[in-house]
Model the fold of this input.
Amino acid sequence: MFKFRRILSIAIGVLLLVALLPASAIAEGVRDDRLLAVMEQEAALVDAILLEKDGELYKRGCSPKETVDALILVAEEHPLVTQVYREDADTFGYTLASGVECVYDYVIMHGREEAVELDFSELMPAKGAAEKVYHFSSDNLNVGILSPYYGIDDGFPDYYFNTFGPIIAQYTGGNCSSFVGNSCNVNTFKTIGNYGTVIIDSHGTFYNGRSYIAVYNTTGILASDYTNGYAVALSGGGCGINGFFFDRYLGANALPDSFIHISTCSGAKDGLLPATLLEKGATVTYGYDNTVTVAYDIYMAQDIYNSMRGVGTGVEYLYNIGQAVDYAKSRQGDYDPYYYESYGEYTYPRLTGEERWYLPPGRFTLSDLDISVSDVYLAQVGDVTTFTVHPVHMLSECIYSFSLHGSDVVSIESSNDGFGRAITVTANRLGGCTIYITVTDKFYGGSITREIPVVVGATFDGALNIEGGNIDFITGGQYPWTIDNTSFEGRIVGKSTNVGVHSSTSTVSCTVDMLAGQSLVFDWNVSCEDTYDNLIFYVNDEQELMLQNGANPDGDGWVTDVYWATEAGSYTFSWTYSKDGSVSARSDCGYLDNVYIDTDVVPLYDVTFVDGFDGSTVGEMIVGEGTVLREDQFPYIEGHTGWIFDGWDYDFVTPITGDTTFTAEWTPRECTVEFIDGLSNELIGSIVVDYGTTLTADMFPTPPTHSGYVFAGWDYDGQPITGFYTTTVITALYTEAPPYIPGDVDGDGVVSAVDALAALRHSMGMLTLSGDMLLRADVDGNGTVNAADALLIIRLSMGI
Done:
């Protein structure tokens, strides 16, 4: 109830603000904070409803087209939306009352799909190596990397600002500046002329014939950007900027001979953005004409940058940008294979402008290498522990070689995992040991050594069991669970390992025998993207529970759950951290601890969940005696138009002691009804009624009287009142009064005692007047004929 009233009050405030603004303000694009605030508030109100529906549809596994179909219906019914336009199966736009254009793009909401690793076998370099001429025409040596969706989709841009950007800066001799996540806003894009090389990695969309680069932080956006068509608001947060935006904010020669790499899905599809950048002086723009998938873009960029600096398979000389793109296409293919296979469309990298753009010669400084280690966990003697080492500047296998040795370890094995090294270490004692990694630059010579400490002392089963427990756990596959002792102040727990790997799962399981009435108890926790990624608990391959980020916002995230065996037998329990097709957030993993079987046998009871609106059953579960249910254990319930969900009739503290039914409670929304004078258009009065109320006579105010007119009733036909976002207006109707002599009931042209008697008899129910007689008898004009009218008539007949 509170949430709805807060949203309703905001909506009313927004509508009042819009009403106060002059109509010309929107048309002329006045750059003031009030107008922008109205636009943003309107967009937020509509967004909240769309995102709630989007999350519901995503959980159901709806396709992009099904999602867009449903969201269009929601948008069309919203009072702040004036028009809705469909772009394609994944995209639609809608116009708000303030004039701002908004776009919903399924790819931006749910991320780019990752391509499978491409096959490099039997691929030859492009023909015709470049002459060894080093030409770098830009006077600006600095490199700028703009990645506004980092932290929402961070796996992709890491390669740009950790790898490609620093390499280019080392060759140019300039500085590399990275603007990621919220630090990359609209103002950042206005200043790309500060860099000779610009790498833009973001989501992008194509709508209404224009391409847009998605920017999550809208700082720097103006109301006129929306009203003049330079930008659109994006559902889910942020905005999209197009070629007209850069034309507006960049000077005539703001990008002298700059190299600009654009990796933004459809952000360059319309050709306007590359053309605009070329007009501003850019030497070359490199982007895509449709959706970008991760592997294709990364491998394309790797081959392009390597060949431009003379390293990589089959490359003997420095290539210019045109030759480098040809070489990359020869290895990776002309178009993005994943997108073609998924959608049946060809998606080409685009290259425009001066193709003879070179990187100047340069070299790496090994001391700048950052060797990062992930997934180091505690191992017992004889067990193995696997972790990965990433030299951030490693672009291909030809650049570096590795050597490994260690103290207090049995063996060290290493293999290349595509972008780094997977190192398996077998320990020979409890306590600490050290791994030494030496990296040698094969191209220029020189080496560095890094030390990696590993702690030995716990078993995997020991980390997941309650202290003294003996359940055997199984994990494996591409992303097995591991041990974590750093996330919770020394608490040793199990942890999933598919961090940052979209469309993947990481599972741990156990199989135990149980009696009916016994229970499995466990603590679990998850740190991930809101709504979409989650940790799922299965019983005999059937999903039983789901844990999402923020399940215990008042504590440290840990939730204790219980499963009761309904019959004796063998049970297989599994916990799976499941990631969707895009976006990684927070620690991006699930945790498990303190698992045990409670051998006490307790009575079991049925719990039924009923929708109080229509009495339908919306869920069932079985719990043991004494259970106290949590709010997240109650089922999701569909809303009802015009009603507010007030929660369940349960206090979340009372234990279950028998078969129990819980009911979802609802409150009707409040609807405002205004009564308007049909002649003067003035407000007669207003009332607030519940949604669905049918008005009765006692709810209507007394209509005003007007000389020469007769009240003819209200324009209301008895329909229920259903307008809770808008006010229902009912108008008092009037007709012109016919000419007559007041008090001349019988119409003989004379007011007499006979007329007074007729009025009196009517008021006493002894006579029924109708039509004009009733109208002439109503001398005081109050709509009724009574003794007061009879008295007035007799006075008129007497001339007093």
Observations:
- Residues 1-31, 118-136, 361-400, 416-421 have pLDDT under 50 and may be disordered.
- The longest helix spans residues 33-59.
- The first strand starts at residue 81 and ends at 86.
